[in-house]
Structures are given as structure tokens and as C-alpha cells.
């Protein structure tokens, strides 16, 4: 249950300890928990993910660790997607604020479906579904093979082709879409030679309907490139501005949808891309 909140002050610099608890990898607990925390931008948090809580003994250890973070002025937050009832009951004994992201909604779903859930961590993460698991693994392999234009084979099999100047976020977005949504995503880097005519590069021209463009701001792109190649022409503000202008014009000319990745998380980018391109969640 949710413990009584301590006298925390929104203006306090003391960080609130946050724990993400899970019976599996903790991806869901971390993602959902951070989504809620993002609604409190003025507060400081320290985050710790504790995955694979698969026994009541481990749950007791975790509960003790959380309670040890309690102070007179700070109450920790514990976001949980643990599905096993006995383990969840142990965790609910914490004096911290326990936010059950799983069990609090499971009863409702069971009532609607008139079927008891398995309460299995494997089911929560899709491990029990061999076809879905294989689809994700094949999608990851495809994304790795077709990263940064490394391979142009089998582009016809791709669900999506991300196109962008270097360092706009193509690789992490491709991998996220593969891992989380089972999509086969290739990505193709735009280089200065590609901007001479304004045409789509020849290898991807026939797949324009699968393309999605990424942009950034000149300042952000220059900063990211500067960390990789400090002092290079590649990282100058002028070069970044040129490439982004030409890329945007290319997208517009060929009716390729695009987003600016400068202030977006990978999760946000993936959600916008899937919605804009009407891509199915295959995972």
C-alpha cells in the first residue's frame, strides 16, 4: 500500500529516492515510472532499477533496501510491475510509497475478460510467446545489418527506413523500434554528396514510401558531432546548418514525413514515427 508521505517540499534540493521494481527486466516499470516522474520537472530524483525479483526472499531484501532510504523528510517512491502475488505482497509491506503499476489494473482486466491472469513475469515481457520473441530477435538482427547504410540488401523487406544526416538519432531509434515493437528498420545516412541534387539517394529512392526523416537543430547537432570529432569541419555550426537545411528540403520535395529529434527521447520519437507511418506493433 502507499505509505504516508513525509514533509517533502517541492523546493527542496534533497533528491527523492526512486526504485523501479520488476520480476523481469524492469523496462516496463522504468518506462512507466519515468513517464509519471516527468510530470514533476522541478524535483530531483535518484533512480535505481531492481529487476528479476523472483522470490519472496529477494523481495524482502529489496523491501529492506527501500525502507533504509526513508528519512524524516524524504519518502522513497517504488514503482512496481511485479506480477507474482506472494512477491508483490511482500513488497507492498514497505513503508515507502508503493505504486503498483501492474496488480492495480490486473483485477479490472480479469473481470472484463472473465479469465484469471497467469501472473507470470514471462508473460509480461513476451518471453512465453515464441513467435513474438523470434520476431523481435529477427528485427534486431535486421536493424544491426542495415545500420548506417552498412547493407543495402533486403531493403524491400524493411518496415521502415530512417533517413537523416549523421548523428540525428537513427541508430538508437532503429534499435528501439526493433526491440520494443518487432519492426524491421533500416537506416540510411545522408552525406554532403547527397545534397548536390536534392534527389533521394539512389539506394533508397525506390523505397520513398517507407522512408521517415530525422532532423535536429544546428546547435544540438554541432554539439553531438563535436563530442565525436572535436575541431572538425563535420562538427561546425555552418556544416550542420547546411546539412539540416538540405535534408529538410529533400524530405519536403519527396513528401517524406520527418520529426526534429533535438528535444525528444527515443521513446517519444518511436511513438510519433509509428503513429505517423501507421506502423503496427509486431512485438
TrEMBL record:
This is Putative phosphoenolpyruvate synthase regulatory protein. The lineage of its organism: Bacteria, Bacillati, Actinomycetota, Actinomycetes, Micrococcales. InterPro entries: Kinase-pyrophosphorylase (IPR005177), PSRP (IPR026530). It catalyses: [pyruvate, water dikinase] + ADP = [pyruvate, water dikinase]-phosphate + AMP + H(+); [pyruvate, water dikinase]-phosphate + phosphate + H(+) = [pyruvate, water dikinase] + diphosphate. The keyword Kinase applies. Bifunctional serine/threonine kinase and phosphorylase involved in the regulation of the phosphoenolpyruvate synthase (PEPS) by catalyzing its phosphorylation/dephosphorylation. Keywords: Kinase, Nucleotide-binding, Serine/threonine-protein kinase, Transferase. Belongs to the pyruvate, phosphate/water dikinase regulatory protein family. PSRP subfamily. One of its GO terms (molecular function) is protein serine/threonine kinase activity. Pfam families: Kinase-PPPase. ADP binds at residues 164-171. The keyword DNA damage does not apply. Its EC number is 2.7.11.33, 2.7.4.28.
Amino acid at each position: 500500500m502507499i505509505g504516508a508521505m513525509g514533509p517533502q517540499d517541492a523546493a527542496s534540493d534533497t533528491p527523492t529516492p526512486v526504485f523501479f521494481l520488476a520480476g523481469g527486466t524492469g523496462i516496463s516499470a522504468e518506462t512507466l515510472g519515468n513517464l509519471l516522474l516527468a510530470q514533476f520537472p522541478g524535483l530531483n530524483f535518484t533512480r535505481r532499477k531492481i529487476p528479476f525479483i523472483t522470490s519472496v526472499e529477494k523481495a524482502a531484501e529489496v523491501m529492506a533496501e527501500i525502507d533504509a532510504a526513508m528519512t524524516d523528510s524524504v519518502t522513497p517512491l517504488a514503482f512496481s510491475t511485479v506480477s507474482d502475488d506472494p512477491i508483490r505482497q511482500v513488497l507492498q509491506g514497505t513503508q515507502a510509497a508503493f505504486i503498483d503499476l501492474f496488480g492495480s489494473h490486473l483485477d479490472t482486466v480479469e473481470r472484463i475478460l472473465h479469465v484469471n491472469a497467469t501472473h507470470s513475469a514471462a508473460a509480461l515481457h513476451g518471453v512465453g510467446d515464441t513467435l513474438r520473441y523470434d520476431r523481435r530477435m529477427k528485427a534486431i538482427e535486421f536493424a544491426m545489418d542495415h545500420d548506417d547504410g552498412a547493407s543495402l540488401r533486403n531493403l524491400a523487406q524493411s518496415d521502415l527506413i530512417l533517413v537523416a544526416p549523421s548523428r540525428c538519432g537513427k541508430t538508437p531509434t532503429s534499435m528501439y523500434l526493433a526491440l520494443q515493437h518487432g519492426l524491421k528498420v533500416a537506416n540510411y545516412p545522408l552525406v554532403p554528396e547527397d545534397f548536390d541534387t536534392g534527389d533521394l539517394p539512389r539506394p533508397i529512392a525506390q523505397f520513398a514510401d517507407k522512408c521517415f526523416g530525422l532532423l535536429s537543430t544546428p546547435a544540438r547537432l554541432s554539439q553531438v558531432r563535436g563530442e565525436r570529432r572535436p575541431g572538425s569541419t563535420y562538427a561546425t555550426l555552418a556544416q550542420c546548418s547546411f546539412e539540416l537545411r538540405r535534408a529538410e528540403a529533400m524530405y519536403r520535395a519527396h513528401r517524406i514525413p520527418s520529426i526534429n529529434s533535438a528535444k525528444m527521447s527515443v521513446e517519444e520519437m518511436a511513438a510519433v514515427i509509428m503513429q505517423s507511418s501507421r506502423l503496427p506493433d509486431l512485438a
